[in-house]
Design a protein that fits this description.
two-stranded antiparallel ribbon; 9 strands; 61% helix; 7% strand; disordered N terminus; transmembrane helix; transmembrane
Length: 611
């Protein structure tokens, strides 16, 4: 009974009043209106969308901070709530401004709005991890307010964090069901030829506003009945706790098998660190589902108490192996942004592992050390997130410095250096490093470094097929294009024509070191030889080039698909092919000719497909 009373006192109950409810509804409505105004600004390239250092922080702030305000109403005093909102707004704005700065002029950046004229490079990872960070911080603030302490008791943190987690999940579920019902309603009205609801649902002003308002309503409703939320949480944690024996058995079997199979198979996977981190995170989650607020220890089934202690002991070897795996990759290939993030994650995992090991070896109490470990690690996570998304610990900056040091020290040859990584993963720092490399004059590899750096800087996206190859000229085309039959040659006008600004043509016409096969045939029967060109990178597609009789320029006039079989290639090279009348005539409608594409026949399948 005492534990139950302590649990009730630690629970941040809502102060339910009409004023709180009205403020929450108004806040959700205003959030939706402001977000739509920002969307409209981006759509029409108006103010503030024309100023990225203002626009992106505003979007970030109004996506995240109103939810904190709505959740804090009724739980935090006016002064505490105002201070928390100011701090949250400042963090959002500063980190968003840094994100714009680091992503500016980087082709690989995401468009925040999906509208190119007003879209800015924006890391959705920032938004995701800001949401995670604010979830942790908001739970700490709510628990401190409920417990009336700067550092609250662990049961208060437990109650606040799990209640907030369930509130968010059910609010998202509420929004999903709401939109499902709205689209179902539009489908019903469409049955009687009424499309007003369908058009309404596609209007941004409606969808953005309704979604924000619905989220505010859901947060309020789930806050009004904390007992229901507590019941759902209890059921969820009980079910999760019975998964702990399964996870412990699997992880324990893995650790025990390592002395017999060795670590080499683990390193060969190239993703050992991420898998080990994932397994560690699952164990930590399930251990906490069993531990809960820490007050139920004597009432937990004995087998779960034993398994939880064993699981705590397994965390440290898993983290040590992951650290060793990451260190091997860093020694071989240097730091990358992913490896910096993995190192930060391992630091957090090490905090859990060491604290849980200490809790497991204490015999007088059942895992009492988990509580202070979770509280301390929560602050470590918050500090780590701020560092990673600020200039101090920016993974892009650290990885660029590491890769440049490897190049300068000779640990990696200039020819093997990944210049594209600097361009598309190094953000602003990588671009500045390439500008430095473009001016390199010292060393035997200086010409190659300058060429590769300039090529990477000129790329518009990471999928640019150039891959560092210089543009093609007449000599390279003569070398890279094999003509069939062998005694034929490509027309000089075709080789001389510039294709560098042309899209959707075989790569061998634009870049060097890209091989093609060319077959000469009068395909359209106009008395002039046409060129059938097949790029090795798109093996089943043959582009047909014809020459204009007036200006002599060549253009891609048609495409043949399906010539992918080995015997087809051999027949084309030997000249064993002919033009035949089409099995289906064209269909002319209103003066326009339509080609009939027959269904694929069995005789179009390759012999190797049946092997």
């Amino acid at each position: 009974m005492t534990a139950d009373r302590d649990e009730e006192s630690a629970m941040p109950e809502s102060i339910v009043s009409g004023r709180v409810a009205r403020l929450r509804m108004i806040s959700g409505l205003l959030q939706g209106i402001i977000l739509y105004a920002l969307y409209w600004s981006a759509r029409h390239t108006g103010w503030p969308a024309a100023h990225p250092y203002l626009f992106v922080p505003l979007v970030t702030v109004f996506l995240l901070v109103p939810a904190l305000f709505i959740s804090g109403l009724g739980h935090l005093g006016n002064r505490r709530l105002a201070i928390w909102m100011i701090v949250a707004t400042a963090i959002c704005a500063l980190l968003a401004m840094h994100d714009v700065w680091r992503n500016m002029d980087i082709p690989s950046g995401w468009s925040l709005t999906g509208i190119k004229p007003a879209g800015y490079p924006f890391s959705w990872w920032l938004l995701l991890f800001l949401a995670i960070g604010f979830y942790i911080a908001h739970a700490l603030v709510l628990a401190g307010a409920a417990d009336r302490r700067r550092i609250a008791r662990y049961p208060a943190y437990f109650e606040a964090s799990w209640k907030l987690c369930i509130q968010i999940k059910f609010s998202l579920l509420f929004i999903g069901v709401l939109w499902l019902i709205l689209w179902l309603g539009s489908a019903l009205f469409m049955l009687v030829k009424l499309d007003f609801l369908r058009h309404l649902l596609t209007r941004p002003w409606f969808s953005v506003t309704v979604t924000a308002f619905a989220f505010a309503v859901a947060l309020h409703v789930t806050d009004v009945r904390p007992g229901i939320v507590r019941g759902i949480r209890g059921l969820l944690l009980v079910l999760m706790s019975w998964l702990l024996p399964v996870a412990t058995l699997i992880v324990g079997g893995f650790v025990v098998s390592l002395p017999f199979v060795g670590l080499e198979p683990l390193w060969a996977t190239r993703h050992a660190t991420s898998v080990l981190l994932g397994a560690t995170a699952v164990l930590i989650l399930l251990i906490n589902a069993t531990f809960q607020g820490g007050e139920l220890g004597p009432r937990i089934v004995r087998v779960l108490r034993i398994v939880a202690r064993i699981a705590c002991l397994l965390l440290l070897p898993m983290v040590v192996i992951a650290v060793y795996s990451l260190s091997l990759r860093v020694q071989q290939y240097g730091w990358t942004a992913d490896r910096v993030i993995a190192a930060a994650s391992l630091l957090v995992a090490a905090c859990y592992a060491c604290g849980y090991l200490w809790a497991a070896v204490q015999r007088d109490t059942w895992l009492a050390g988990i509580a202070p470990t979770n509280i301390a690690t929560a602050f470590v996570i918050l500090a780590m997130l701020i560092v990673l998304f600020s200039p101090f610990g920016d993974p892009a900056r650290l990885s660029v410095s590491s890769q440049m040091a490897r190049l300068e020290s000779g640990k990696i040859a200039a020819a093997a250096f990944d210049y594209n990584y600097l361009r598309f993963e190094g953000k602003r720092y990588g671009k500045e490093a390439l500008e430095v490399l473009k001016k390199t004059t010292a060393g035997i590899d200086a010409p190659a470094i300058r060429t590769q750096a300039e090529t990477a800087l000129n790329k518009k996206n990471r999928w640019d097929p150039n891959d560092g190859n210089p543009v093609a000229d007449v000599t390279s085309r003569m070398k890279d294009i094999t003509v069939w039959p062998k005694n034929e040659t490509l027309p000089e006008s075709f080789l001389q024509q510039q294709w560098n600004g042309t899209t959707n043509v075989p790569d061998c016409l634009r870049f060097r070191n890209r091989h093609c096969n060319a077959y000469l045939k009068d395909v359209n029967r106009d008395g002039h030889t046409d060129i059938l060109l097949r790029n090795d990178n798109r093996y089943s597609e043959i582009a047909i080039f014809t020459q204009d009789t007036t200006d002599g320029r060549w253009s891609k006039s048609a495409v043949i698909f399906g010539a992918r079989c080995k015997d087809m290639t051999e027949a084309l090279q030997s000249g064993d092919y002919r033009l035949v009348e089409p099995a289906w005539q064209d269909l002319e409608i209103d003066g326009r000719r339509l080609h009939i594409q027959p269904s694929e026949k069995d005789n179009l399948r390759c012999a190797e497909d049946h092997r």
